[in-house]
Design goal:
This protein is of the alpha/beta class and about 325 residues long. The protein has a single domain, classed as NAD(P)-binding Rossmann-like Domain (Rossmann fold, 3-Layer(aba) Sandwich). It has eleven helices and 14 strands. Bound molecules: nicotinamide-adenine-dinucleotide (NAD).
């Protein structure tokens, strides 16, 4: 008998979470949006009131052992997209809390799923390209591949590595299949915090006519929020065996190219955005071919992603709903 899908998205009120929930609602799949936070402000930026009404919201702490089991039982969850985590600056500021949320929280998700193998048919979690240091790239080609050894230089990257290892053991010892995806620089409405959020925040600054500094240079792999949400849903449904881990593909671009794309879409902002600082401490050439196992994944080129993001933000602005504070800019 075909399974009637019911998705649980953890960290659902975050950036990727909001786009994942939107994807599920638009295709008509029931979804429970779980988060420590209670204000679905990022979802409101990208979803209509009717779409929001279709979401079941649940609030709690993923690091509490009973939270996920209770949610799986109460809502008969069949697929899990696990995104809840603290990003690099927050892990750096409070490593014990980072370990509790990012590692213990993830083990709680896996443990609850392992105890319900007949019920949970898909589990995907967000790892990160931060499991690698820039020096982990192949000296000859400059690329990192899915199976390369990573030597992360942040607690955050080490926590993500621990999650990948725990996923492997849950498969080997518990028969729980999972897919871990490693995004790099997610870009789009709702990307208002974290190390690599600056290119998105720069668009908001451009639209409100403020100077803005992007604190890193060089190139990175950009992943458009809408693509990322859709990809996590596809991965949850992949039905693949094993503890799979895939680098996530996207649009490789120089920060300067992105600034040029922003200036093309918001010409009145020419000269407002400056690029300073070193390149990001991660590889910028990513072999993401392994993720082809998930099917044809959406990749919006960075120029279109910038244009679509500008359009969405302009719409909010036209309705008096573009509050710079809400997009990670300081008060004027
Ligand atoms: N954004 C990126 O570029 C990027 C890159 C690589 C990996 N990732 C990973 O993708 C996932 C989602 O990232 P994002 O950009 O949406 O982050 P985000 O910071 O926007 O969202 C994370 C969400 O997790 C929630 N959360 C934090 N602590 C929690 C707890 N104890 N219990 C329940 N919920 C809690 C937060 O309230 C927030 O809504 C994370 O695992 C992140 O590490 C993101």
């Amino acid at each position: 008998m075909p399974v009637t899908e019911r998705f649980l998205v953890t960290g659902a009120l975050g950036c990727i979470g909001a786009w994942t929930v939107r994807e599920l609602v638009r295709e008509g799949t029931p979804v429970v949006a779980f988060d420590l936070a209670a204000d679905p402000r990022r979802l409101r930026l990208i979803m209509s009131p009717d779409e929001l009404d279709a979401v079941t919201f649940a609030t709690g702490d993923i690091a509490e052992a009973s939270t996920i089991p209770d949610l799986l039982d109460e809502h008969g969850i069949t697929h899990i997209v696990h995104l809840a985590a603290l990003q690099i600056p927050f892990c750096r500021a409070d490593p014990p809390l980072g370990a509790r949320v990012n590692v213990v929280g993830t083990v709680n998700v896996f443990e609850a799923a392992r105890r319900r193998l007949d019920q949970v048919h898909g589990l995907v979690y967000a790892s990160s390209i931060a499991v690698f240091d820039a020096a982990d790239a192949d000296a000859r080609t400059g690329y990192v591949a899915d199976g390369d050894a990573g030597h992360p230089t942040t607690h955050y990257g080490v926590y993500k590595q621990a999650n990948e290892g725990n996923a492997r053991v849950y498969w080997q010892e518990g028969g729980l299949a999972s897919v871990g995806l490693r995004p790099m620089t997610v870009f789009g409405v709702g990307r208002d915090q974290g190390l690599t959020s600056a290119p998105t925040r720069a668009i908001v600054a451009a639209l409100v006519g403020r100077p803005f500094e992007i604190g890193f240079s060089g190139r990175t792999l950009f992943q458009y929020t809408a693509d990322v949400g859709r990809t996590f849903v596809m991965a949850a449904r992949s039905g693949l065996d094993g503890a799979r881990i895939f680098n996530l593909g996207g649009s490789n671009a120089a920060i300067a190219e992105v600034v040029a794309a922003i200036e093309a879409a918001v010409p009145e902002a020419a000269g407002l955005i400056r690029i300073t600082g070193d390149p990001l401490p991660f590889p910028d050439r990513i072999d993401a071919s392994g993720a082809d196992a998930l099917g044809p994944l959406p990749v919006t080129p960075i120029g279109s992603a910038v244009a679509q993001t500008v359009d969405l933000l302009r719409e909010l602005q036209a309705n008096g709903r573009l509050d710079p504070l809400e997009h990670g800019l300081p008060a004027a």
